[in-house]
């Protein structure tokens, strides 16, 4: 139920669902540009929060939770989302894309009181493929551009590595160093996938029963973007 005082976001909301490593961020950034919908990644936001020089009990808590691959509490995430929803809102924005939110049923229930989810795009890959993709992932320290050193060619999957073109150790876009995220190490990967199955996967059914879940299995990584874009375009304009 909407609480008195809760502002309501009036434009369409697109939710990107899917286990860690499936490519939500990569696809999301492209969709954001093509459909004129800003994207908000809760994971990216939290990483920038802990990467700063400031320290506070909240930042220390977030740092620990993320390194362990666990989820931040729903109330804190909701506060962050509410602030972001109405910040930087421009008339030309066609809505907003959420990457990594909601991640629990209570988060989805809260989101339903502050805006209308137009569609949920559920990306999926086999678990063994996700583990390889996460272990191969590299991220630019400066602009967070995503790269991947993994070469995956099995079980119908065909993923080429996604490497910087100029210098393998530096980001093509801003020249900063590439890093291997602490939560992309084996123990944290296992925990993140476990948490996904326990807490986030139930959202597939939650949104399926609302008739707004659309599932995609990109077996060629970002190479699949053109057909994914066409399909999502139809969903957005329906
Ligand atoms: P991601 O980059 O989306 O995999 O997020 C990285 C980490 O940020 C997660 O493992 C969680 O610790 C935290 N996080 C991101 N989004 C949420 C969310 N919606 N709810 C709780 N924790 C989150």
How far apart the termini lie comes to 27 Å
How many helix segments?
9
| Biggest sheet statistics | 5 strands, parallel
Structural class: alpha/beta
Q: How many whole angstroms does the radius of gyration measure?
A: 17 Å
Can you list the ligands bound to this structure?
adenosine monophosphate
Helix content: 40-55%
Trace the largest sheet across and list its strands. Answer: 2-3-1-4-10
Average pLDDT reading: 94
Per DSSP E runs of 2 or more residues, the count of β-strands stands at 10
Strand content: 15-25%
Notes on the structure:
- The protein is an alpha/beta fold and 238 residues long.
- Helices cover 43% and strands 18% of the residues.
- A five-stranded parallel β-sheet has the order 2-3-1-4-10, with helices on both faces.
- It is globular and about 50 Å long.
- The model has no long low-confidence stretch (mean pLDDT 94).
């Amino acid at each position: 139920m909407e609480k008195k005082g809760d502002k309501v976001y009036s434009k369409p909301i697109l939710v990107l669902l899917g286990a860690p490593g499936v490519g939500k961020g990569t696809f999301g950034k492209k969709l954001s540009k093509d459909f004129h919908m800003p994207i908000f990644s809760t994971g990216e936001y939290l990483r920038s929060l802990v990467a700063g020089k400031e320290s506070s009990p909240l930042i220390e808590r977030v740092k620990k939770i993320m390194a362990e691959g666990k989820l931040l509490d729903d109330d804190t995430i909701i506060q962050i989302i509410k602030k972001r929803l109405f910040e930087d809102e421009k008339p030309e924005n066609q809505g907003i894309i959420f990457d990594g939110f909601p991640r629990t049923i209570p988060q989805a229930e809260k989101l339903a009181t502050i805006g209308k989810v137009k569609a949920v795009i559920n990306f999926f890959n086999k678990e063994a493929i996700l583990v390889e993709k996460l272990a191969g992932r590299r991220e630019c320290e400066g602009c967070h551009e995503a790269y991947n050193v993994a070469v995956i060619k099995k079980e119908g999957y065909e993923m080429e590595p996604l490497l910087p073109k100029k210098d393998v150790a530096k980001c093509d876009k801003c020249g900063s160093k590439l890093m291997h995220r602490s939560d992309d190490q084996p123990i944290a990967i296992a925990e993140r996938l476990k948490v996904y199955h326990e807490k986030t996967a139930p959202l597939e059914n939650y949104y399926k029963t609302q008739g707004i879940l659309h599932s995609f299995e990109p077996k060629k990584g970002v190479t699949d973007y053109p057909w994914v874009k066409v399909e999502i375009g139809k969903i957005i304009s329906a």
